[in-house]
Hints:
By secondary structure, this protein is α/β, with parallel strands linked by helices. It folds into three domains: 3-121, no CATH class; 129-259, NAD(P)-binding Rossmann-like Domain (Rossmann fold, 3-Layer(aba) Sandwich); 289-453, Dihydrodipicolinate Reductase, domain 2 (2-Layer Sandwich), CATH 3.30.360.10. The chain has helices at 3-32, 48-62, 68-79, 90-99, 106-113, 138-149, 171-180, 241-244, 289-305, 349-356, 391-404, 455-469, and strands at 34-38, 41-42, 86-89, 129-134, 157-164, 181-182, 186-187, 192-195, 200-203, 206-212, 229-233, 252-257, 283-285, 307-317, 343-345, 363-371, 377-389, 411-414, 431-434, 439-451, 475-476. The strands form four sheets. Strands 8-9-10-5-4-11-12-13 form an eight-stranded mixed sheet. A seven-stranded mixed sheet has the order 15-16-14-17-20-19-18. A four-stranded mixed sheet has the order 2-1-3-21. Helix 1 packs across helix 2. The longest helix is centred in the N-terminal third of the chain and has 30 residues, at 3-32. The protein is globular and about 65 Å long.
Amino acid sequence: MTVNDDSFTNWKTREEIAESMIPLIGKLQRERDVTVLLHSRSLVNKSVVSILKTHRFARQIAGEELSVIETMPFLQALTALDLGPSQIDIGMLAETYKADDRGLSVEAFTAEAVAGATGVNKIERREGRDVVLYGFGRIGRLVARLLIEKAGSGNGLRLRAIVVRGGGDQDLVKRASLLRRDSIHGQFQGTITVDEANSTIIANGNVIKVIYANDPSEVDYTAYGIKDAILIDNTGKWRDREGLSKHLRPGVDKVVLTAPGKGDVPNIVHGVNHDTIKPDEQILSCASCTTNAIVPPLKAMEDEYGVLRGHVETVHSFTNDQNLLDNYHKSDRRGRSAPLNMVITETGAASAVAKALPDLKAKITGSSIRVPVPDVSIAILNLQLARETNREEVVEYLRTVSLTSPLRRQIDFTSAPDAVSNDFIGSRHASIVDAGATKVDGDNAILYLWYDNEFGYSCQVIRVVQHVSGVEYPTYPAPVA
């Protein structure tokens, strides 16, 4: 048999194993609210090739490819356990099992590693929490996709309604079409139908009421059977407590803003300060996409090296608040054509760091340039550290943070020498450390952080909503602090 034959036989074997994983992953999700991860990447609703590619990607962060041959025994062991709602990373199970020298079987090791999610320790399924989207633009539609994807067994978040201003003839059909097809993020994974008579969109069986209103005061959500809902404001029209309080209508319990909050509105970056949210807090912000991109790695660097001062330069994709062609705009430069120009603009991300990281005493400044790409941005974080180090140490530290720390859902890592912005469309992390671009000279470190300013940010929003709703389930094996 030739080398080529060996490679193809190996591929077909792994393909067969990946195919047999799919029903096991789906059953755990539907029946037990267990989300199977691989190095923080969900394997739920993934194809055979996607599962294999996710395993292969592990070589960029763990140094070698992870095989389904290695992870399948752990998945099989999970199906035999009395699991409660949780997220279980079979990549981490496989990696930690290799390092364990006690001679345990895969079954015994797995049972021990996820003991907090089994038997008397397991969390009971919670009643689903209603969610309302106020606004249905770029972020609103991506958040909708994520909510529908995560509906799972029906015991988590339930997207019940979308509130928009009336747009004329065929409004519902056009909005459904924008949800179904996206020029950047591709086709919706599932089926979407429209019931114009009842003003509803049915997406993968989720019946979503479309409510037309020009102001929050016009809506009584209880009239639609909605109760104790979390309302996600995607418009950015109201950003202070007084304005956002308008959403606290009958049927709505909490308001989450997908833009930086003003005044005393808490700005939350999941993974960094989400545990500071008070149980009785009704209004909060998920800050900006750039704040979410820079704060987790900034915290990681502060924890390990100390940060004396820093500057962030954001090279940001253009957004809908810019003009397609030159036209009047209230801002000085954003009126110039977005697809044709680099546009210097302001960013509040640096000043927002203080809200998310109040213990960080370092002064952080920031500026931003909008560039002619439709999605994925890069933040260049230039830091003066409290101690000297070297590039190898910083790169290895951030690689480890992306794998095993409590920030592993926020910080991703790539060592691909040819990585460009398009490669990170659809990333679910808040930011991705580019190892090859990292520069360190004594006490100065420059980090290049890619981030999908649409989808990655939307994932952070969903994590905050899951946390305040009580359906953010624990992850096993537990991350290393």
